[in-house]
Amino acid sequence: MAAFALLVFLAVRQPMFVGALPERLPDAPVRKAARLAQNPAALCRSSATAGQIKRELFRRAAEIRGRDQAAFDRIAGASLIRINLPELRQTDANLGTVRCQAWVELDLPPGLGVLDGRRNLMADIRYTVKPGAGGKSSVSVSNEGLIVTPLVTLAQVSRADDEPLPEPVVQ
Q1: pTM strictly above 0.85
Q2: Strand partners, 53
Q3: Does pLDDT of 145 surpass 80?
Q4: Fewer beta carbons under 10 A from the terminal one: N or C of the chain?
Q5: DSSP labels for 31-60?
Q6: pLDDT 10s digits, 57-87
Q7: How much is the pLDDT for 39?
Q8: Can you say how many angstroms the Cα of residue 2 is from the centroid of all Cα atoms in its chain?
Q9: Of 147, 155, 39, nearest to 102 (Cα)?
Q10: Which H or E element spans position 74?
Q11: What is the pLDDT of residue 149?
C-alpha cells in the first residue's frame, strides 16, 4: 500500500511528459468575431461611420462625373451628414462585418445645390462596416443612387437662394 501511495505522489508531483514547461504560453489566435465591437449596433450610428459614408457618396459622384475629384473632396468636408434611424441588419462573425440600414440626409454647403435646386439630399441606404486595426474601419455603401445621382449635377447656385428672407415689417 505504501508503494502505491508513493507512486500516486510521484505521478501528481512530476509532469507526465519529458522536457521543460514553456515560460509563456503562446497567444490564443484572434478570432474575427472578437474584432467586432462590444456593441455592433454602435458601428451603424457612429460619427466615424457617418463621415466615411459621406466621403464615399462624394467619391462615387465624382467618379460618375469623371472629373472634379479634388473639388468634391473639399465639398464633402464642408457638407453635413445625418444618419437617422440606424438599424443593425446583420453581423457576420466570419467576415467581421456589420450590415446596417438608415435614413441618410446630406446637407450641402451654402452656395451649392444640385440641378433641381435642392441643397438637402435624402435616401434610405444600406451600408456595411468592417472594423479594422487601430479603430479604423471601412464602409461600403449600396442603394445610394437617390443621393449620388443628383450629387453628380452639383453646381453653384445664386447667392440670393441662400440669403435669409428679410424680417417682416410690422406697421
Answers
A1: no
A2: none
A3: yes
A4: C
A5: PHHHHS-SSHHHHHH-HHHHHHHHHHHHHH
A6: 999 999 999 988 999 999 999 999 999 999 9
A7: 84
A8: 69
A9: 147
A10: helix 69-78
A11: 95
Answer for the pair 126, 66: CB distance below 8 angstroms, yes or no: no
User: At CA 110, angle to CA 83 and CA 163, rounded to 5?
Assistant: 125
Chain center to CA of 135? 11
d(CA 127, CA 142): 6
Cα–Cα distance between 124 and 118 in angstroms, integer?
A: 17
Distance separating the N- and C-terminal Cα atoms of the chain = 116
Residue whose C-alpha cell reads 434611424 in the numeric block = 85
Q: Estimate the crossing angle of helix 69-78 against helix 47-65, to 10 degrees.
A: 150
Q: In Å, what is the CA distance from 2 to each residue of 10, 11, 14, 48, 154?
A: 12, 14, 18, 70, 93
Give the pLDDT band (50/70/90) at residue 167: low
- Which of 169, 154, 159 has the alpha carbon at shortest distance from 120? 154
Q: What whole-number distance in Å separates Cα of residue 157 and Cα of residue 100?
A: 34
pLDDT higher for 135 or 142? 142
Q: Residue 139, Cα to own-chain centre: how many angstroms?
A: 5
Q: How far is CA 6 from CA 9, 13, 17, 18, in A?
A: 5, 11, 19, 20
